[in-house]
Structure formats: structure tokens, C-alpha cells
Amino acid sequence: MNTHTKMDAHHVMDAPDHRNRLDDMAQGILGTTMDRPDGPLKVTGTATYAHEDHPAGMLHGVLVRATVPRGTLDGTHDAAVLALPGVRRVLHGDRFLRNPAQGTANEAPVQGSREIFYVGQPVALVVAETFEQARHGAQRLVLQMTPGDAVTDPTADDIAVERDPDEQSSMGDLDKAMKDAAFSVDQTYTTPGHTSAAMEPHAAVAWWDGDKLTIRASAQMLKYNKNEIADSLGIDVRDVHMLAPYVGGGFGGKLGISPEAVAAALAARDLGAPVSVAMTRRQVSEATMRRSETVQQIRLAADADGVLTGIGHVARVSQLEDEDYAEPVTQATPFLYRGKNREIGLELVRVNATCAGSVRAPGEAVGLTALEIAMDELAVAAGIDPVELRRRNIPEVDPSDDKPFSSHTLEAALDDGAKAFGWDGRKTKTTDGDWLVGSGMSSAVRVNMIGESHARVTLNPDGTLLIETDMTDVGTGTYAILTQIAGEMLGVTPDRITTVLGDSDLPESAGSGGSWGASSAGSSVFLACERIRQEIAKTLDCDEGDLTLKDGIATAANRQVPLAQVLGDAPLTSTGVIEPGKTSEAVRQATFGAFFAEVGVHRVTGEVRVRRMHGSFAAGRILNAKTARSQCLGGMTFGIGMALTEAMIFDPRDGRLVNGDFGEYHIPVNADVPQLTVNFVHERDPWANPMQAKGIGELGICGAGACVLNAIHDACGVRVRDLPATLDRILDGLPEV
Amino acid sequence: MKSFDYIRATDTGHASAEAAEGAVIIAGGTNLLDLMKLEVMTPDALVDITRLDLKQIAATDDGGLRIGTLVTNADLAAHMTVRTDYPMLSQALLAGASGQLRNKATTGGNLLQRTRCYYFYDTATPCNKRAPGTGCAAMEGATRLHAILGGSDQCIATHPSDMAVAMRALDAVVEIEASTGETRHVPLSDFYLLPGDTPQIETVLRRGDLITAVILPAPAQGVQSYTKVRDRASYAFAMVSVAGRIAMDGDRIGQASIAFGGIAPQPWRDADAEAALVGQPATRETFARAADILLADAKPAKDNAFKVPLTRRTLIATLTDLCGKAAS
């Protein structure tokens, strides 16, 4: 083969793929604990995150926040700030983003700095020669605001409630089921707002070359983000070049573009120089996405055997006006457990507070946590072991529409987790010094999906491999898994593979988010490699299925040929495209798992410490055992945070976020996190994608908090229904000292 | 951040003289720099004392310990004499901040930490401590962190230090050099001021004063401990903390020294509560009575009523533990 060959491989996921082709491969790197290729750069501080590569002549911009929750910005006293040393410009205007774009929005969010909708809304940008000068100017900019009427308490009695008909469903007669139930639970649970809490704050560096904008950003989904930038600026998307080679965590907060990116681009154009805008932690907390607080009424009706006859789950969440997103609290409730009589609903109220959006497993993270506390309450009421209660309630098909499951692994995860944790011999209602010790468990579930994704794979004549896609690695391990997939398929060792990500000029991927990145981008790489294998097979005159590629050697029948010889002097390039298809609708796809925790509750102070925690998860084919495990450890850690410490505190008077820093917004620190263990349950899901892999990024947080809260109840008898379980919510239920 | 002049002090006199001119003294900077970035504090000049020879921990003639103002929290916590003779101080230090911060933070700076009141940090809100006369946003706002004792209707912020609470229980004395060159000694009990109508004035320090050392008296009898109750296991300020020392006299309590953090604008001690312990049998009734006295005037805000039972429980448990150990 001496000609440059470009071959596309386009696959629509319309039918299950039972071939499990990756199991036939010989290289032996997929699924291993291979180190991240990008790891050394990251631990030596040389990976260039958004704000770590400064073009010559770069100026610094700092955003200015509105300080009233509603009203108009009538003017800004720019002159005084422009007179400060180093200050070059004060910008505001119609193109400023009021709030971030929602995930996959693909268009500009609400824009304009004249109308104020929440405390913290960016309304101006001060640009100066140094960051400190800009920050000082931003601090000193006097805003003339006319306050308007704000709604800042989502729990107010007289607040207007919106009910999207698509989010309400009802089956049978839940009221009757509750009345007839042998055992029932009817409780209200609340969760507070959560901030995404990525380690890298949102930041962007923008510069223009004529009409062409280049922007280095901290972004999860470039395919959508470039359109959001273009629409926000009113320019052609072909003039937007985004770079996000390294992203220091996203957690949903970087799905869509946020105000700093557009502000940087506007300022760079205005000043004719590169401009960076990096958010402070408070700005990230105030002006990017929050997860809405939730109020969830849950009703469970069960027969004498603990089999559910009814489930009610009605949640209320909040959002800024003119935004459609509503935290999908009840997303997994329709299909997780049995029960013919159902009422599921989602209510939305409008508040003048930070925009609500996707944060760390939107939906299940908080919805399942509440549902799994309720299940524990039912287990206690019915006197049935909580693991057994869940086993008895695993449905045969999706109870909401009778669709089959693509694969159902909850029982396997429950069994594996119970065994690994030692559930039967667990510590329950016991003491250890001043600690009251108990154990709890919960189920994990997360919907599974893929998005259209493209990747280009080039096998060079020297046997090296190049993988290119605009996919991002948000700390999740994308560089590693794409390297492994291609290396496995084409028999190339990782040291001969280069994976290039995070450049919007590369083939468009689904991006990172919703746990779909690995499945989507991975499948596109798989398809491209499969196409290259076919081409190699053709050259060797064998079937692709009979071709073995390992360590740069092609083996077919009794022939062994170095890949370099097969290729000749032209590279083989293929672009793989995966597209979701009929399998998304034909079956119910989800990942499952089970959490187990042992906690101590201090008998004097009510402080809670998790003593050990285990998760067993099934997420299809595991692509990298180390990075997959790390995803689960992170999810479980955030589960501990959700259960015990994390809460955005809004001042009810003006909706102001009062704890916008990590000193007072308490994510778990090392001392809060004990030894965590993770098991993966074997699964190949043919309906998911040609790799039989499923999403893993979010599963580890979905329901994780509930095992901790259920363990608190087991330890001390206090049922915490208002999260987080800070000591004041436990104290009253403890015995006298 | 507002630009500022930077002056490196050549000796304590130089530092005091610059401070007298209005410069703010900086050592570890673990709190001051944050406040300057946020423009909660906007000094025109900083005088850096970190090169001064104030890093010694030395025995005093009367058997106590003189701790140079620049001794880091990490070094002080690890000091053998502190660990053996003043264990509550070592425990308090290790309960504070994080390893990285303790490596930078100094003894004098720790005493002068500013409050962690949410509103003090948000310059868009009224705060009598940050901007005298503007009002107090906390009073009707989010008050989980706030004081139940010692507050005023102008300010209910708490003092965040752990170290200072232990030092209060240990009857520490602050050594201060004025810009006149004169050195004076102020007991920690007199060092902090209650907010009253002037919450912006937090200590008796005058312009130009430099803390040069903290002096601990000779080790006192008995058993001591520092207990910190907080919202997460590390890197969180105290909801309540108790620095306690108990010496038994036969089967009765001989000496009691108890200081509290997290519940007041300054490290809190209640002489009446301590007096209610001395000479009494070490029983739950005795401990409960001391708690009643301590908390009789407690005025919780909207979100921190829990601090009353929490303080009570923590005090009783601490006294139970200390008396038990002191008796054995």
C-alpha cells in the first residue's frame, strides 16, 4: 500500500453488538492499570491548563459582580477605575454572559449586563496590565444599580410553581397503594445546593488574529463550546479555535461556556491584545453552575414481603428565570425498583440566585440519595435486611414502559459488595470508645448513553500511532483510555502512541460530561482502528477477524509481518464516527452498583466519621482499571461530602452565596475519607456501543451519600433527612452525656 | 489587590517605627494576604518581620517558656517541652489549619487572626468590623459560625484561633514592644477586647506595637487536653473547642482552667464557671452546674442555637475525661 488512504468508519448504534471484538485482541493493555500518559506532566506542573500558557503581551481581566439580586445596572463609574495604575479598559454591554451555557446548549445563554438577576452576576470586566491591578480596579468599580423585586427564598409558601408536563407521570393509584400497604414510608428529604468544586477555577485566555479568535479555555465539550462562543460574540464558528488540552476537573461546571470566556474574547478584540480572565473561587461559586437545592417528597408502599407496590417521588428544584434546565431529580426513579402504582413529578420555582445546571451527576446524585434513604426507612419498618429488600425489588423490565434492560447488574453488584464489605458480619448498633458505630448500604444507578463522536487515527509507516479528537481529558483519564483502545486494536505499545485532545480543529467528539465521554470518544477510536485493521487484513489477504496485531507485528495465518512492512511508506488514516441509534430507545440502559459504609457517630458531639466504605460497580467493559477506580473513589468521596458536609449557604434576604470559598464550603478533606475500596463487576453490554463499555464517571456518587446516612441511623438511631448531616442535625437525638 | 509598599524590617525597632507610621506587620501572611487580595484589608505598606531574630523557644527563669513571635505553628506544636508540659497547646495547634499553613503561620500572627465571619469577607455587605458604622449583615443572616457569648448588637463574629484558646487556658502573657522601645507584658486575658460598639478594635495593641513573644508560665499541675468540634475532620474552624486543665485535690477538684473557642469573639474563659468546679467532687452534677453558669448568658443567633447544647455536652465530656485521668 503506497497511497495515502483516508477511510471513514461510521457506525450508528442501531443494534446490539455481541461480537465483543476487544476481547479478541492481543496487545493486552486495555483494561489494565496503565499509567496516564499525561501523568508526569501533571505531577511536575508542566501540563498547560487554561491559564498556564501566556501569549506575549497578555493583559489581565477581572470580572465585576452585581451586588443586588435583581434590578438594573444604570451606570458604572469607569473614569475613576481607568485612572488607576495599569488599568486599560472597563468593559460591559449586551454580549456579556449573564450566566453559563447549559450542557450541550450549542448556543449563547442569556446575555447582557444591564439587567441584574442575581448577586454575583458578572456585569463588567476591568482589564489591566497585571492581575493585581485588574483585581483592584474590579474591586473599586462603583456600580449604579436600581434594585428590583427579587425572589430569594425557594421555600416561600407563595412562590409560583411550574410543572413541565413531560416531567410528571402517574400510573395506577398510589394513594390506594399507600393505604393498603403492609409497610410504607412517606417522608420529605432536602438537599442543599452544591457547587461543582473543580480544582481548576474557570479561566480563559483569548486572542485575535484578524477575524480569527483563539481561546484557551477550561472546557468540557469543545464541539458545543465553540458554537456557544461564536453565538455569544456574533461571529462565524469557523473563526473560533478553542484549545483545552488539560482541564483541571469539570464536574459539570464546564459543560457550557461561562462568562469569563466571552469576556476575555470581547476584551481581546477591543484591546487588540491577548486577554486572560481567570475567575476567583468566589466567582466560580457565584457565576458558574450550582446544583439546585431539592425538596423531595417520597412515598413507598410495600406488601408484607417488602415488595414495592407503589413509589411516589415528587421533587422541587429552583432555577434562574429564562433558563429551562431543572435538576432531573427523579431520573432513575421510574426504572430502579418495582411498584405498579406511581407518581413521579418535578416542580420548578424561579429564584434570583446563581444559575442552576449540571453538577456532578445531575439527577441521581441527589434524587437517588433521597430514594435510598427512604428504602432504608422501609427496610427498618419492614424488618427486612436492606440488601435483601433491594434484591426483592429489582424489576424484570423497566416498570414505566415495559422496555427490557440492556443488561441488569444491580443484584450482582449488591452481592459482590455485600461480600466484599462483609455485610453479614457488619458492625451494627455498637460502640467503640466514644463512637457509636453502625453500617449502612445503598444502591447505585445511573442512566447510560453515548453522543455522536468523531476521532481520527493515523497509523504511521514507522509503526507509531496518532489519535486526534477534540475530546477533553478533565482529569478522568481520556488520554490513557484512548491510547489503550487504539493500542489494543492495532497492536501498538503505548510509548509509540500519541493522543492529541482538546483542540476544536480536530474531529468533533461528544466531549466530557454525563459519563458518556469514554464510551463515545472511545467508540470512535475503536471504529477507526477497526477500519485500519480491515485495511491491513486486506493487504495481508486475510479476514480482519483472523488478524492478530501485537507489539507492531501483524500475524495472519502462518505469516508474521512487521506493521511497517505492511504499510509501506504511506500512513493509514481513518476517521471513526459513532452515533447513537435505536439501542438508545429500544432498551433501558443503565449502570448499577452498591455502596456500603461503616460510620462512627461521636456520642458527645454528633460528629460523624466514615470508618470504611466500599463500592461495587458494573459499568460494562472497564477500559483502565486504575482511572476507572479513581473515578469511583472521587464519586464516593463526593458522596461523603454530600452526606456530611457540602452545602451552599444562601442568605435568604438577598440570595447571596455566603460560603463561596473552600474554607467554608466543605468538600471532604483527606481526614474525612477513610480507606475506600472499589470492585468492578464483570459486564459486557452489547447495546451500549461496540466496546461494550458504559459510563463510569458519575456512578460512584449516585446514591453514595445514602449509605453514609443510613449507617448514621444504624449507629445512633438518628434519621437525617435534611442534608448534610452536620452535627447539629444529630445532636438532639443522642443520649445525654 | 491594592498596591502597597514593602519594607523589610532590620530590627524590632525598625518594625515598630514603620508600624507606627501605619505599616501593617506581616509574618506568615496566611491570613493577611488573603484579606488583602479581597481588599478586606488595604494597607498602604507592609513591614516584613520574618528576617528578625524572633524564632526562639526558650525556658524562662521562672520555669516557663518564652515563645518568639516568629515561631511557626508547626515548630511550636512539635516542640518537646510544649508536647510534654503544655500538651493542650500542641494539640490545639495541630487541630488548626493544615500542615502547609502551620508551616507558614506564626505565633504572633495566629493571635491576630481575623474572624471568619462570611460577611466580613464579602466587601459588598455591611460589616461593623470591616467598615465601622455600616451595620452587621450577620445579625439577621447566616450565623452558623457565630458567637453565642460575648457578642454585641454591633458584631457577633467569633475569633477563629485554636492556639489562642489553649494559651488562654494556660494563662499566657503577650510580650509587646512599642515604637518607643518600651516593652510591656499583657496577659492574654486582657489582650483581646469584646466588640461592644467598636468591633473593629480587637486587641489592646496600639499603633506601632509589635508582638515579640508569648510567654507561658511554669507548667501547671494536672491533666490537660484540647478538644475541637468541627464540621469536617480537618481544615475547618471550631464549632466549639475546649482547652481544659484539671488538677485533683484528693477526691475533689483542686484546680480548673477551661477556655473555649468557636463561641465568642475572643478565646473565652468564665471565672465563675471555673470557681463552681474548684473544691467540688468530680461528678456530673458539678460539671453540669459549671456548664449552666457558662451558658447562662448565651444568646444564640438564628443558626447557631445548637452551640449551646454542643458546648454543654463537650464541656461535660471534657471534664469527665480530665477528672478521671487526673484522679488516676
UniProtKB/TrEMBL annotation, chain A:
GO molecular function per UniProt: iron ion binding; oxidoreductase activity
Transmembrane segments: none
UniProt cross-references to Gene3D superfamilies, sorted A to Z: Aldehyde oxidase/xanthine dehydrogenase, a/b hammerhead (3.90.1170.50), Aldehyde oxidase/xanthine dehydrogenase, molybdopterin binding domain (3.30.365.10)
Superkingdom to which the source organism belongs: Bacteria
SMART domains: Ald_Xan_dh_C
Record domain Aldehyde oxidase/xanthine dehydrogenase a/b hammerhead: where: 44-149
Matching InterPro entries: Ald_Oxase/Xan_DH_a/b, Ald_Oxase/Xan_DH_a/b_sf, Ald_Oxase/xanthine_DH-like, AldOxase/xan_DH_MoCoBD1, AldOxase/xan_DH_MoCoBD2, AldOxase/xan_DH_Mopterin-bd_sf
Entry protein name: Xanthine dehydrogenase, molybdenum binding subunit apoprotein
Protein species of origin: Loktanella fryxellensis
UniProtKB/TrEMBL annotation, chain B:
Domain FAD-binding PCMH-type: start-end pairs: 1-221
UniProt keywords, alphabetically: FAD, Flavoprotein
SUPFAM superfamilies in the cross-refs: CO dehydrogenase flavoprotein C-terminal domain-like, FAD-binding/transporter-associated domain-like
MF annotations from Gene Ontology: FAD binding; oxidoreductase activity
InterPro entries (alphabetical): CO_DH_flav_C, CO_DH_flav_C_dom_sf, Diverse_Substr_Oxidored, FAD-bd_PCMH, FAD-bd_PCMH-like_sf, FAD-bd_PCMH_sub1, FAD-bd_PCMH_sub2, Mopterin_DH_FAD-bd
Keyword Flavoprotein: yes
Keyword Membrane included in the entry's annotation: no
Listed Gene3D superfamilies: 3.30.465.10, CO dehydrogenase flavoprotein, C-terminal domain, Uridine Diphospho-n-acetylenolpyruvylglucosamine Reductase, domain 2
Domain of life, per lineage: Bacteria
PANTHER family reported in the protein's UniProt record: ALDEHYDE OXIDOREDUCTASE FAD-BINDING SUBUNIT PAOB, XANTHINE DEHYDROGENASE SUBUNIT C-RELATED
Annotated protein name in UniProt: Xanthine dehydrogenase YagS FAD-binding subunit
Species whose genome carries this gene: Loktanella fryxellensis
